[in-house]
Amino acid sequence: MRSGDAEVTLANKCVALVGAPNSGKTTLYNWLTGSRFKTVNYPGATVEFSLGHLASHLGEGLQAMDTPGTYSLHPKSADEWVTLRSIYENPKVDKIDGIIVVVDGTQLSRHLQLVMQMKETGFPMMVVVTMSDLLRREGVELDLTYLEKTFGCPVLTFDGLLAGGLLEIVSAAGKLGSSQKPSRPVPWGFAQQEEKLKECERIAQEALQHKTDHAQERLNRIVASTEKIDRVLLHPWFGILFFILIMGGLFASVFWLATPFMDLIDGWFTGFAETVAAWGPGTLWADFLANGVVTSFAAFMVFVPQIFILFVAIGLLESTGYLARAATLIDRPFSALGMSGRSFVPLLSGFACAVPAIIATRNIPSTKDRLITAFVVPLMSCSARLPVYALCIAFLFHGESALYAGLAMAALYLGSIVVGAFAAGIISKFIPRTEPSFFMMELPIYRRPKLRVILRQAWTRTLSYVKRAGPIIFTFAVIIWVGTTFPNYQTEDAHQKLEESYVGRAGKFIEPVVQPMGVDWRVGVGLISAFAAREVFVSSMAVTFNITDTDEDSQQQALLTQMSTATNSAGEKIFTVSSVIGLMIFFLIALQCMSTVGVQIRESGSWKFAMMQLVVFNVAAYVLVVVVVQSLRFLGVP
Amino acid sequence: MNLHDMTIKSGQSVEITGFAGEDILRERLHEMGLRVGSIITILGKAPFGGPLLIRFNTSFLALRKEEAACALVTLK
Fold first, then answer.
1. Sign of the CA dihedral A620, A623, A626, A627?
2. Which residue of A has its CA nearest to B10?
């Protein structure tokens, strides 16, 4: 596998893969290209198509393009528009030389509509029937010669599990091509579409019956087993129970399974940063490399295990056919908030980390639903907030029953769900719906997952995260390093250095702003530096309140003691019940995470959206905190 | 009656007799393979009054009530 030479050139012949969602198109594409492809963002859209060379063992001279799933050439959603545009007016490819229409062998009659439409455009084309492994196992055979004759183009089968038929597909695709210019698809209209559908059903019947009399019966048997499983998994009661179990498992695995790997990466980078710092102790360049470059890389690389595990988990749910069912189960409550059932997985994974969760919103086809979901995701209390919550709760319930602390923590998580639902309800009123929200969701036949394909897909998606989000996160990190280091970088005393740094000055400058929150400039610095990552708040507090003990447990103990005695310039206590409650509310709502902002910019394709989110969340959090803190003080709470 | 009709129980089969409602929804129903004369088995409803679950031929579909209401049906 060579990924370095995935240069997109125009000299190659280019074939596009077109097919309905869940038709097995992307599986075929992954087998065709190996890892030699790159995803290309269609200008102005989140939806992307992929362009790639053939895997090296399959030969040269052919490029393949993957397009978003579409049911027809008369687009009804953003994704379907991208498919149409990527065939007719592709910004990266001079001309599409041929189309591979991918149809699911178990859904033949429905998927043949797209074959017919494509035929009418005059594109050089071929048909690939997927799920051939499943069909063969059940003894269902299709009359390919009959289909070839009917559509006047090559028809081949493909087995997604073992990649059977791949070489034949490549060879047939290489022969595609004609000089005539394909025309635009002409809409059929209702009456004609009825006829075409009938025709498709007839062709599918013939293709099955020409081989064996019982093919249809056997096909029905495959379907019957899916129906049996659905009786449990989509049951009004058991369905919900299994849903909670499965989603809980997904959440737990993203959260817990990733932790050792995250610690490993974190530890490795910490060690590396120390090594780098030792190259030139006390020098600015070593400090920049260690605390600027290495630490900032660590800041986003640490998410890689979570992202990978999340994509594997989603891949598993998707390829077995459960994801569509989960979305169906939860559609009603979500649609009341202006989203759809498909928003569920991204929101759930938001509790682990907003970064992979925002990337996961790509699976939502409707633009409006996707935007609302991406908007709300950062409100879910991510794992980075845990250290801050823990510190605040420890301060409030110091020496009291652990039950109160536990209840307070549960209230915070519940609070984030309530705030999220509230925000979704509001924002849905402001985002115009440019397209009807379809929930005509196809529930695919249950299948055994293809682990190899899932792992590879998860890997390429993770790699894409690193490549896309990396530069932005890195830039933010460098800015924060510069801000906390200069101008008095030679000062030995970390506390003094921070106080006199640009960030420290900014903290003092914003003191009038944070004062109504009941805190002073030092907490302000913590809030600013928490933008690098929320957990930085705790270590920033340690620096500003002059805690030198590095042992974690005693550090928190020492910090709690310092916090309880710290006073502002007027001699009043900074950390009181009201101000700490205020801080928790602030962390619950405010968007202070550069990784999230970076990914949001990339994924929404718009600075405006990310900046609006940043401003709205922070202003809302601030106003709410001020109101709460001042009200509490007015009521006599310290 | 239409597919959203409350009198249709799970396990029952219906035949599509026509389509009504927004063009875009009707067209999408066609694209999903539903046409006049299609025989549909009702599998049930998702919880909380969620989408309607149906099967026809070898396909399983979930339809929201707005979409289900576009398909006019008669009991089979």
1. negative
2. A231
CA-based nearest distance B48→chain A, Å = 6
Question: With contacts defined as CB-CB under 8 Å, which chain B residues touch A109?
Answer: 33, 57
Tens of pLDDT, residues A568-579: 777 778 888 899
A589's tokens: 């709502």
- Residues from chain A that touch B48, judged by Cβ atoms under 8 A, are 332-333
The pLDDT tens digits for A530-564 are: 887 777 787 777 766 755 545 555 566 777 887 88
Residue listed under structure tokens 């895997």: A55
CA B38, CA B54: separation in Å to the nearest integer?
A: 12
- Please, which residues 16-75 of chain B have a Cβ atom closer than 8 Å to chain A? 19, 22, 24-33, 35-37, 43-51, 53, 55, 57-64, 67
CB contact under 8 A, A72 and B35: no
Lowest mean pLDDT of A20-24, A467-471, B35-39, name the range.
A467-471
**Quick one: chain B helix, strand, coil %, rounded to 5?**
15, 40, 45
* ipTM value: 0.92
Find the CB nearest A190 among B26, B50, B60: B26
pLDDT in tens, A77-107: 767 888 888 888 877 777 888 999 999 998 9
